[in-house]
Amino acid sequence: MAKHEIANSIYYIGVNDKDIDLFEGQYVVPNGVSYNSYLLKDDMNVVLDTVDKRGTEQWVKNLEEALDGEKVDYLIITHLEPDHGYNIELLCKKFPKMRIIATQKAFDIIPQFFDIPNFEKRKIVIGDGGYIDMGKHTFRFISAPMVHWPEVIFAYENTEGILFSADAFGRFGLPETKENWIDEARRYYFNIVGKYGLQVQNVLKKASHLKINKICPLHGPILDKDIEYYIEKYSTWCSYKPEDEGVFIAYASIHGNTADSAKKLGEILKENGEENVVLMDLARSDISIAIENAFRYSKLVLAASSYNAGVFPPMEHFLNELKGKNYQHRKVGIIENGTWAPSAGNSMLKIVEEMKNMKVCTNKITIKSKMNEENVKQLGKLAKELMKA
Ligand code: FEO
């Protein structure tokens, strides 16, 4: 997205990254990602966050063009992670008198990444409720620790009603692509911020009295319509409540027999009137989408083969990821397969039991090598149990 004015005297100066292979070393981003950065030109010129090293050249060009020969007086750091903070040192060297506005936690971390000339003299520490005037525009600050790092703080610009929300409300994909916000925002949220639902709840509460006209996140499009819709989605996600009623069936199958039972359950559920049934082969799917689906739907079915006296690794990996992200409050069905000593069920159960408020269906199914008629009946009972209110 080219440099442009997004509100009176506030410019977007971020950059698009169309060909990154893996965002944060693990997430496939088929439609790229943007590193958003903003410039306020007022009595004081203020940059809000820099960009990833992959975008340095374009960002400097955007910044210089927007500055039109003027200097930067302040840098506000809402989030220090390298996809936003990489060019802090460069900016400090370019503007030797520029001051840095950030939380104490950010200032504690900065020397681990950067060697900033006159670091001590540049520091302006802000915290929750702090504010700073830049001329016609004033920034108020709302601390947002662990959304998604401990130093994160949101900046709310009073005159325009803009919330600079760091990673929150961001999504994968370039800002100008026409894709729905929701799918790539959900995948981003649950995979990157999902563990910190409580902290997101706290910051939403603190921001609830603000009149927000625009949300400017650090990734993806600027949100300037239907603000309530985005806040409502975040409120649901951070509370760990399902967004949609439905059953997500995640399977990990060695020879295809476990997959057959998962698909059969999907058919039975549909025959019984369940409208939302989503199946995913964990060995051949993007795990970040599987995680997103697990959080999205109200019920989860785990179907896996036994392996090394435990469970087939794609399922183990999936469940450990869910546990790490605080997955909770869901109804779960379990299908195991094992030819001589089925072990997948207990291995899956052990991880599920470490999660909060999980309700495991009593109809736990064991398939021995290949689904038989009895198993089909059991799948029918499991479907009924899953669909019971
Ligand atoms: Fe976009 Fe937490 O960095």
List the helices and strands and how they pair.
Layout: E1 4-7, E2 10-12, E3 15-17, E4 33-35, E5 38-41, E6 45-48, H1 56-67, E7 74-76, H2 82-85, H3 88-94, E8 99-102, H4 104-113, H5 119-122, E9 123-125, E10 131-133, E11 138-143, E12 153-157, E13 162-164, H6 181-193, H7 197-207, E14 214-216, H8 227-238, E15 244-252, H9 257-271, E16 277-281, H10 287-296, E17 297-307, E18 310-311, H11 313-324, E19 331-337, H12 344-353, E20 359-360, E21 365-367, H13 373-387
Parallel strand pairs: 6-7, 7-8, 8-9, 13-14, 15-16, 15-17, 17-19, 19-20, 19-21
Antiparallel strand pairs: 1-2, 2-5, 3-4, 5-6, 10-11, 11-12, 12-13, 17-18
The structure holds MU-OXO-diiron.
MU-OXO-diiron (FEO) binds at residues 79, 81, 83-84, 148-149, 167, 218-219.
Plain-language structure description:
By secondary structure, the chain is an alpha/beta fold. It has 2 domains: 4-238, Metallo-beta-lactamase, Chain A; 244-384, Flavodoxin domain (Rossmann fold, 3-Layer(aba) Sandwich), CATH 3.40.50.360. Helix content is 35%, strand content 23%. It is built from 13 helices and 21 strands. It has helices at 56-67, 82-85, 88-94, 104-113, 119-122, 181-193, 197-207, 227-238, 257-271, 287-296, 313-324, 344-353, 373-387, and strands at residues 4-7, 10-12, 15-17, 33-35, 38-41, 45-48, 74-76, 99-102, 123-125, 131-133, 138-143, 153-157, 162-164, 214-216, 244-252, 277-281, 297-307, 310-311, 331-337, 359-360, 365-367. The strands form 4 sheets. It has a 7-stranded mixed sheet with strand order 1-2-5-6-7-8-9. Strands 15, 16, 17, 18, 19, 20 and 21 form a 7-stranded mixed sheet that branches. Strand 10 (131-133) and strand 11 (138-143) form a beta hairpin. Helix 6 crosses helix 10 (287-296) and helix 9 (257-271) packs across helix 13 (373-387). The longest helix has 15 residues, at 257-271. The model has no long low-confidence stretch (mean pLDDT 97). MU-OXO-diiron binds next to helix 2.
